[in-house]
Every structure is written in structure tokens, then in C-alpha cells.
Amino acid sequence: MKRFYKQVSVAPAGEAYAITLDERPVKTPQRNGLAVPSSALADAIAAEWAAQDEDIIPATMPLTGLAQGALDQVESQRDWIVGRIAAFADSDMLYYRADQSQQALIDHQADRWDPLLDWARQRYDVSFNLIHGIRYEAQPEETIERLTMAVEAQDDFTVAAMLALVGLSGSLIATLALVEQARDADMLWPLVNLEELWQEQQWGRDDQAVMTRNIKQAEFQAAARFVELSRT
To answer: What is the pTM of this model?
Structure first.
């Protein structure tokens, strides 16, 4: 799409903040007004629109995309989206450890991942079943219920970001730690890529894998920033 506007601004919209183009409200794909809960997030989204050149490139506007998701998808499909996020309570990557033949990797996983699980145990009063090797083992029902409640407690904008965060990280625990401000994105990203980084140390880097990981990291950082700005 060609850029069709000259001026981008932010305007009050009740208790929210709307992004306008040439003083006209921006609409989401579902024709909702692009209005967000904080002025800081609105300013950041407006900056994305202002930075567009002759063509509007959605891939360069991650905050806009997340806001559209909150307004179009989460608002109308909240229970389904919460369910998708909460499903990671039973399959979090942090539960899965190397098989017994890889003791060095088991020790590395324990050193890096166990403090995050310890935080979750204390924060939500839950327990976890750790699994060695490639097999499935269900987590305690109470754990799944309490982590699901933690997702349900979030507002629509946080839920939209969490859907992106769990998809990129494979970890609900890491996502909740970020949302709860117990860990930041820079600390969490190496943890959720621990096994890939371990393999690189053992066998050397794969340039394509590094490129893909860097793209995902930028998306992860954008979702983390979205959460922070929506509460500012």
C-alpha cells in the first residue's frame, strides 16, 4: 500500500489514545478504531506510521500489528486465545531436559532454567514435573489451573502480546516472568534459546539459524516493549 497521509498524530479517545492520519482516525482491519490504553504506546505506534516511506510495510510496524490483534482478535475471541496461551502450561519448554546421556547439558539446563521455575513455584504456588528425553508427561492439574488463571487475569493488550511471546519462546513461564516484570527480555531470550545456543557452542554456528533467531528476537523484543508501553 502506498503512503497516503502526511501527518500522524495522537488524539484522546475517551480513556484511550487514538492514532490519526491527517486528523482522521486509523481503523484496524476489522474497522475498529486504533485506540490504545496509554499515551506512550500511542506515541510509539504513531512513530511507526510516521517512519513509513513511499510504501507502507506492515512488517516494520510490530506495535501496530499487536494493537490490531488486541482490538480485532482478543476482544472477540478472548477465551480461545487465552486457551492457546494457557496450553503451554502443560508443555512449557522449560520442563523438558536432555536425556541422561547428556549430563553436561542437563547441568547447564538446571543452572539456567531452574531459577525461573523456582520463581514460578513461589509466585503461583505450583509444582512441575521435569521430563528427561523426548516423551510427554502431564503437569499437575492444579499447576495448569493456576497458570491459566494468571493468563486470564491479563488485559486484552497484554494477552495479545503474550500470544506472540509464547509462540516465539515456547515458554509460558518465561512469558509470565516478563509480564510480571520478574525478568526482562534481554535476560529471557538466551534462556528460551538455550539448547540452540548450546549446540552452536559444540558444533559451530549455522548462519541461517542465526538469521532466523535474530528475526524472532526482534519480534520478541517488540512484544515485550508493547507490554511495557501499554502500561505506561
So the answer is: 0.96
